[in-house]
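Usage

Read records sequentially. Each one opens with the input sequence:
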Amino acid sequence: MVLEPICCPACHTPDVVKNGKSDEGKQRYRCRNTKCSRASFIRDYTYQVSVDHKELRQGLNR
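and closes with the structure output:
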């Protein structure tokens, strides 16, 4: 098993701790650096976009 260190995206310190889960079930982290501008973060932000495939095909065929 390979453990990848998690660093704060703002100050890049590895001094982070788990801080609950988001509504989507993703792990939330908290930076323990007191001088950091970012209090908490989610490691991988992903957003689901609803796409109408029929409209997409019509747009590609133009």
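Summary fields computed downstream for this record:
- The beta strands are 16-21, 27-31, 40-42.
- The two ends are 49 Å apart (CA to CA).
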